[in-house]
Specification:
The complex is a heterodimer of chains A (289) and B (301). By secondary structure, chain A is mostly helical. Chain A contains 16 helices and no strands. In chain B, the strands form three sheets. Chain B has a four-stranded parallel beta sheet with strand order 2-1-3-4, sandwiched between helices. The longest helix of chain B is centred in the N-terminal third of the chain and has 28 residues. The chains are: A mainly alpha (289), B alpha/beta (301).
C-alpha cells in the first residue's frame, strides 16, 4: 500500500522516472549555486534571467525557425552577455551587481519584445522554449545531467577563491588576482544552470530549485559546506515529494515541487535550529545595553 | 549653405513620400477594406469577397490567437475597416476592446452566429469550444454570414458576393464528401487520436473521430503528473494508434506520451491557423484536406 503510493508511480511510468532524475540532477547542480548566490545577495538573478534571454531566443527563432536548439543556444548567449556584462560593470564602477543586472535585464527584455514583434509572429516564444518536467526527452535529460556534472566539477575547482570572495572580497584582492576570473566563471555557471533548466524543465522549477532550498539551508547550518549539503538534500526531497503530490493530488508538477520546497522553507523559518523563530523565542536573549 | 541644401533634400523626400502614399491609397480606395481576426476567416472572406474586397488578417498564419497582442498598426487597420469579421464564441477575447479603442465604424460580424456551440468539458469546468471551423457544415454557416456582412457593407457588390459564395459553398460540399469518404475507410475502432489542445471537438463530432486532448482547451494550462499518467493508461488500454502535433504547440509532451506508449507520431495538424503561402495548409480547403490526409495516413491499419 505504502509501497504503491511512494514508489509505484516511478516504477510504472517512464515519464515519472525521467522527471525524478532530472530534478535530482538539478538539485545537485543548482542548489549549491543557489547557496552562493544567496550569500552574495544575488538571489533574484534567476527571475531576471528568465526574461533576459528573450532576445537570444528571438534571434535563434529568426535564424532557424521554431528550433529548440537554436533558440536555447541564442538564450544561452544572451544570458552570458547579460551576466558577464553586468558583472564587469559592477566591478569597474560604483554600481552594485543587482542594480546593473536590473538595468541589463530590462534593456534585454525590451529588445526581445521588439525583435519578436518585428518578426510579426504571435507565438509565445518563451512558452515554446520553456519545457515541462513531465516532458523530459533524451536531449533535455542529457542537458540537465551534463550541466549538473560540469557545475560540480567547476565549483570544486574554483571553490576556495569563490568562498573567500563571498565572505571577504577585500582579503582575496589583497592576496590574489583570481577574484575577477573566478567571479566570471561562477556567473557562467549560473547562466548555464538557469538556461538549461528553463529549457528542460521550465522557469519556475529551475529558479525555484536553485533558490528555495538555498534560503532554507540558512536555518539549518552555520557554515557553507553544511548549507550546501542541506540545500541539495532539501531540493532532492522537494523533487521527489512534489512529483508524488502532483501524481496523487492531480496538481501541475512544476508548481507542486516548488510548493513542497516552499513548505520546507516555512517549516525551517519557524523551527530551524539556526535562527528559527521558535529557537529565538525560547533561548534567552543576550543582555543588551 | 550645406544646412539649407540638406533641408531642401529632406523636404523633397518628404513630399515624394506623401505623394507616393497618396497615390497608393488612391489605387486601393475602390476596394472594400475588410479585417478578419484569424487567418482561416481571412481566407473565407477572401473567397467570398473576391476582387472587390481587400482583406487584412490580424492573427497571421502559424500564429496563436490565444496569445495575440495587438500593435498600433492593427488598431489603425481596424480603424480604417469598412467590415470586420470575428469568429466569436470567446476565441478573440481582446477584440471588443480593440474595436472600441480603434474607433471602428463597422460593427463586427460574428461569423459563427447561428452555430450550435459545443461545450468542452475539461477538468470539470465547462467552456464553449470556439473551434467551430473544424466542421465543414459550420463553415457553410460562416460563409453565409460573411456573404451577408459583405452585402451590408457594400450593397453595390451584392450580386458578386452571392455568386462567389455559391461557388465556394459548392466547393465546401465537395470537401465534406471527401472528408467523409476518407474517414469512412478507416475502421471505426481505430478512429482515436491524441492531440495537444482540444481544437478538434467539432471535427470529431461531425465525422466520428475521437480526439483526446491531454492539455485541455487552452494551450496555457499545465498538466499534472496524474493527467499524464491517466492519458498513458488510456492510450495503452484503448490501443489508441496515434498522437498528433499541431502547428502552434510545443511538441515535447506528445513525444513523451508516444515514447512511453508506442503510439505512432502523426504529422502536423492545423487547428487554429493556416500555414504560410508555401505550406500545405495555405487556404481553408487545403487545411482540411491536409488534416484528413495526415489522419488517414496514420490511422489506416
Amino acid at each position: 500500500m505504502l509501497y504503491d503510493a511512494l514508489i509505484g508511480p516511478f516504477l510504472e511510468f517512464e515519464f515519472m522516472r525521467r522527471a525524478l532524475v532530472s530534478t535530482f540532477a538539478l538539485a545537485f547542480g543548482a542548489a549549491p549555486i543557489g547557496v552562493i548566490l544567496m550569500l552574495r545577495r544575488m538571489s533574484l538573478i534567476g527571475d531576471a534571467m528568465s526574461h533576459a534571454i528573450l532576445p537570444g531566443a528571438a534571434v535563434g527563432f529568426m535564424l532557424a525557425g521554431l528550433n529548440l536548439f537554436a533558440m536555447a543556444a541564442g538564450g544561452l548567449i544572451a544570458g552570458f552577455v547579460i551576466a558577464v556584462g553586468a558583472g564587469l560593470i559592477a566591478r569597474s564602477t560604483q554600481l552594485k551587481e543587482d542594480a546593473s543586472l536590473a538595468a541589463f535585464f530590462l534593456i534585454s527584455l525590451a529588445l526581445g519584445v521588439t525583435l519578436v514583434s518585428a518578426k510579426g509572429t504571435n507565438i509565445d516564444l518563451l512558452h515554446f522554449l520553456f519545457g515541462s518536467v513531465l516532458a523530459v526527452d533524451d536531449p533535455a535529460l542529457l542537458i540537465v545531467v551534463g550541466i549538473a556534472s560540469v557545475s560540480l566539477v567547476v565549483l570544486a575547482l574554483i571553490w576556495r577563491p569563490l568562498v573567500l570572495e563571498c565572505v571577504d572580497p577585500g582579503f582575496l584582492r589583497s592576496v590574489s588576482r583570481a577574484g575577477g576570473p573566478v567571479h566570471m566563471a561562477f556567473l557562467a555557471l549560473v547562466v548555464m544552470n538557469l538556461v538549461g533548466g528553463f529549457q528542460a524543465l521550465g522557469t519556475l522549477l529551475a529558479v525555484g530549485i536553485m533558490m528555495l532550498p538555498a534560503v532554507t539551508s540558512r536555518f539549518w547550518a552555520r557554515e557553507i559546506t553544511g548549507m550546501i549539503g542541506v540545500a541539495i538534500a532539501c531540493a532532492a526531497l522537494s523533487g521527489y515529494a512534489g512529483l508524488l503530490l502532483s501524481y496523487h493530488a492531480g496538481l501541475p508538477s512544476g508548481p507542486a515541487i516548488i510548493l513542497v520546497a516552499g513548505a520546507l522553507y516555512a517549516l525551517s523559518v519557524a523551527a530551524g535550529p539556526v535562527g528559527g523563530l521558535i529557537w529565538l523565542a525560547i533561548t534567552p536573549r543576550h543582555l543588551e545595553a | 549653405m550645406i544646412q539649407r541644401f540638406h533641408s531642401a533634400v529632406l523636404l523633397m523626400l518628404a513630399a515624394m513620400l506623401i505623394a507616393a502614399s497618396a497615390s497608393a491609397q488612391d489605387k486601393q480606395q475602390d476596394k472594400l477594406k475588410a479585417v478578419a481576426t484569424i487567418s482561416i476567416i481571412g481566407d473565407l472572406v477572401k473567397s467570398v469577397g473576391g476582387d472587390r474586397v481587400e482583406v487584412t488578417t490580424l492573427v497571421g498564419p502559424n500564429s496563436d490567437a490565444h496569445v495575440f497582442s495587438p500593435t498600433p498598426s492593427d488598431a489603425k487597420t481596424l480603424g480604417a475597416a469598412k467590415a470586420v469579421f470575428i469568429n466569436g464564441m470567446g476565441l478573440e477575447g481582446w477584440i471588443t476592446r480593440l474595436v472600441a479603442a480603434a474607433g471602428t465604424k463597422a460593427t463586427p460580424v460574428v461569423v459563427s452566429a447561428g452555430i450550435k456551440p459545443r461545450q468542452a468539458e475539461e477538468g470539470g469546468h465547462h467552456a464553449v469550444d470556439p473551434h467551430a471551423w473544424q466542421s465543414v457544415a459550420n463553415v457553410k454557416i460562416y460563409v453565409a454570414n460573411i456573404r451577408n456582412g459583405l452585402k451590408k457593407a457594400d450593397p453595390a457588390g451584392a450580386a458578386v458576393y452571392d455568386a462567389n459564395a455559391k461557388v465556394y459553398l459548392d466547393k465546401l460540399d465537395e470537401l465534406e464528401r471527401e472528408v467523409r469518404d476518407t474517414i469512412q475507410k478507416i475502421p471505426a475502432d481505430r478512429r482515436k487520436i491524441i492531440t495537444t489542445h482540444d481544437a478538434f471537438g467539432y471535427f470529431g463530432q461531425a465525422y466520428g473521430v475521437q480526439f483526446i486532448a491531454p492539455l485541455g482547451v487552452s494551450a496555457e494550462s499545465q498538466p499534472s503528473a496524474r493527467d499524464v499518467a491517466k492519458i498513458i493508461g488510456q492510450v495503452k488500454r484503448q490501443k489508441i494508434p496515434a498522437v498528433f502535433m499541431e502547428n502552434i504547440s510545443d511538441p515535447r509532451m506528445m513525444q513523451q506520451i508516444a515514447r512511453e506508449t508506442g503510439a505512432k507520431i502523426g504529422g502536423t495538424l492545423y487547428s487554429d491557423a493556416l500555414s504560410d503561402a508555401g505550406g500545405p495548409a495555405a487556404t481553408y480547403l487545403d487545411m482540411m484536406r491536409s488534416n484528413v490526409r495526415e489522419l488517414a495516413k496514420v490511422l489506416a491499419p
